[in-house]
Write a structure and sequence with these properties.
The relative contact order is 0.20. The chain contains 1 helix and 8 strands.
Length: about 220
């Protein structure tokens, strides 16, 4: 590695540390997500898991701003609601966006500082892929319905709330419940009696761990 590259890295780390001391703690979090489809998306899929990674900074004592990347895959169809329960369906979502966390009790927290409740909201740009496999309906008059593949970019909006518990000064365990709406569309397949989906709506339960640099 060249001396210029080393100098650049050192300057970047110094800038991050200086900004952290000026504006607040730098935060990195990893979260596991349980996604529950609602509305028309529930007609196609059952609950699934997801993953997210976020990094940000506390700009005031009661605000944290984060950039987030996330991914999720709905791969198990809702056999109880589909007319053809063994249809092969899959929806993959890959997103990157921003979110804000508001802590009404500031750094002091609630209940003698043991709990730190917060409100959360944000926007995410998703790249998503939908696939429905080919299928032969159980009628003699209809032939095979060909597979369907869709891909698009869509904006999603999230709102919810959660709580953090600090087992140490720099590490917290967090849990959050949110509602997420992604403005995506899946075309209806009338031959298979599948209605279309105009918005991917889901309830989300996050559990994760955060690390606060500078504490």
């Amino acid at each position: 590695m060249s001396a210029r590259a080393v100098l650049g890295i050192l300057m970047f780390l110094f800038a991050v540390e200086a900004r952290g001391q000026l504006d607040g703690d730098v935060v990195i979090s990893v979260q596991r997500t349980h996604l529950i489809p609602v509305s028309s998306l529930r007609e196609l899929f059952v609950s699934t898991g997801g993953f997210s990674l976020a990094a940000g900074q506390r700009t005031e004592s009661n605000w944290v701003w984060e950039g987030i990347i996330e991914l999720a895959r709905f791969s198990k169809s809702n056999a109880e609601r589909l007319y053809y329960p063994d249809l092969s369906l899959k929806l993959d979502l890959y997103g990157g966006g921003v979110r804000a966390l508001y802590y009404p009790f500031k750094l002091e927290g609630a209940f003698f500082g043991l709990f730190h409740p917060y409100l959360a909201g944000g926007a995410t740009l998703y790249r998503w892929f939908y696939h429905r496999g080919a299928y032969s309906p159980d009628t003699t008059s209809a032939g095979e319905v060909p597979e369907l593949k869709l891909a698009d970019w869509s904006l999603g909006f999230r709102a919810g709330g959660g709580v953090e518990v600090f087992p140490t000064q720099a590490i917290s365990l967090s849990s959050q419940v949110s509602y997420n709406a992604v403005i995506g569309e899946i075309w209806p397949t009338l031959a298979l009696r599948i209605d279309g989906v105009s918005v991917f709506q889901m309830a989300e339960v996050f559990v994760g761990i955060k690390y606060y640099f500078g504490r």
